[in-house]
Each structure stands twice: as structure tokens, then as C-alpha cells.
Amino acid sequence: MAKVKFFFEKNAKPWLENAYNLEGYNYPVAYHRQRILKKIISPFKKKLKIIDLGCGGGNNAIMLAKLGHELIGIDESLNMINIAKKNLSRCNQKIKKQVKFFNISILDNKIKNEKFDICIAMGLIGYLDKDADLFKIAKNITKKNGLFIVSCRNKLFNLQSLSFRTINEIKKKNYNKLFKEITELYGKIPLKDVNNFIKQINLTTKKIQTNYNKKSRNSISPGNRLHNFKKYKPFNEPRQHSPMQIKSLAKKFHFLIVNYYGVHPHLIDPNLNKLLPPMLFNILNDILNPLEHLPISLSWSSAFIGVFKKTK
């Protein structure tokens, strides 16, 4: 954890810029996690008490406060908290009163006696030494029938990515197990979702026609990177989990799955990204967003959000 803390102290600003940057070849995972998080919490009309573990620059906390909720955000990185407080300073007085940020570890005992309606941990679990630590904390601070919303990098996607991760799963003899988990995700897609999917295809087609006419295609050079088989970097790339793995862990701490959401979908081979004009790959991928709440989305998404309900 010390090395992870050091990484985010040194890279807080560029990490946040990358996480929410909609331009170029970058896919803004944090931006889409926030979009889905808003979709999950928006139906709640009463004021909720929410904690954001590993809150980063405070983007999610401030967004949820604007929906009318009370937020506490904690992060071990002082630079992240300073950025969060700066972002909060730009908000009106009402929002400022609804949000508090603290520079403490999630393992700090200062929060163990508080209870929250919703506990959020976006992208945090992959940086922890022990997965169980996060669920133990969530169990202690989440009210009965409250929600724990956690996001992970998706181990199932290693079967699709055609990267060094695919090779690693084969070498470790995990491929068959992951393949079996994927096959259990398949099911009939409801007509409503099919119609929304078709609408998204039409919107995407118009967007491509607008942004990639003949003139723009000729003026943008595609990338030349074919494959990127770099060695695993534990502080740039958090550990991965499969949905079944997280579900089993959650059950041990009295959390039952409500739903999964696929994050960062891939309509085509990810290695094509930099062979295409900037942004085109991600525009194509967003065609799949209307299906992100269905189990099958976990087969083509490089990350996922799990929504769990505390039973006791």
C-alpha cells in the first residue's frame, strides 16, 4: 500500500486528467463509472448518507451531492484530497455543506463507528493488499439493506483482449475456468434493450458521419502500434477480479448481488484502437452502452461495477 500511496501522491493530477479525458485514444473509465453511478443512485429521492472510499479528486462525491445527498470522501493521497477540496471550492454553498473530504486511509478506525446508506469504492479494490479488507470495512459501515457499490478491472476480458493478459491466463491454466464463467452470462436480450441498442447504433452512425467525413479522414493519421505486450505494472494497473470472484467474496460479508454493469465495452479487437483515427474506436465501443446493465456486458467490458445489498 505504501508504494501505491506514493504513486498517487506523485501522479494525482495526470491520473485524474487521464481518467476523465474524452479525447484522443484514451478511454475515460472514471467518466463512464461516474455516469453509471449516477444512473444507479438517481432513482433514490430521499436524502442519503454516502461514503466514497478512495474518492480521488472528489468528482463522484460532488456529483452525488448535486443530486441532494450527503457525502464523505476519503483518500490516502493528500494530493488527491487537495484537488477534491479545490473542486469543491468552486461549488455553491449548499453543495459545500453537503460534502466533506478527509485525508485518511480506508483502514483508519475513525470511520468504523459511522453508518451509511451507500458505500462506494470505485477502482479501489485492485490496489489493496487484501480484497477482504474492503468488504470488511463496507460491512462495518453500511446500514442493513444499504448498498455497497464497487468497481473492478474485469478478469473475464482477458479472454477477449488478445494481450499479454490472455497469454498469462493460458500459462496459469485459468482460461477454461474464465471461459465457463463467460458462458453463464449469455441470455435473451429484452426487446426494450434491443430497441435502445438500435437507437445507439443510429446515433453513432450520425456522429461518425459528422466527425469523420472525407476531409477529416485524410487529415488524421492512424497510429502505428500493433500490440502492447508490456510487463504488468502493479501501481499503474490495479489487480483484476472476475464477477463470480467478487460475488463469492461479498457473500462472506453478508452482501448479495443486485446487479452488475459492464464498463469500457469493446465492440471490436482493442488492438485496433491506435490503427484507427483518434476517438473512433471509443465512439464505436459506446454502441454497447445501452446493454451495460445486462450480464452479457461482462463478456466484452474491461471493467465492471457491482451493486451489492447488505442483508444483515
Please write out the topology.
Elements: H1 2-20, H2 29-41, E1 49-53, H3 59-65, E2 70-74, H4 78-89, H5 93-98, E3 99-102, E4 116-122, H6 131-141, E5 142-154, H7 164-171, H8 175-183, H9 191-211, H10 214-219, E6 240-241, H11 243-252, E7 255-265, H12 280-285, E8 301-310
Parallel strand pairs: 1-2, 1-4, 2-3, 4-5, 5-6
Antiparallel strand pairs: 5-8, 7-8
Helix pairs in contact: 1-4, 2-3
Q: What can you see in these coordinates?
A:
The protein has 312 residues and is α/β, with parallel strands linked by helices. The chain is built from twelve helices and eight strands. It has helices spanning 2-20, 29-41, 59-65, 78-89, 93-98, 131-141, 164-171, 175-183, 191-211, 214-219, 243-252, 280-285; strands at 49-53, 70-74, 99-102, 116-122, 142-154, 240-241, 255-265, 301-310. Strands 1, 2, 3, 4, 5, 6, 7 and 8 form an eight-stranded mixed sheet that branches. The longest helix has 21 residues, at 191-211. The two termini are 30 Å apart.
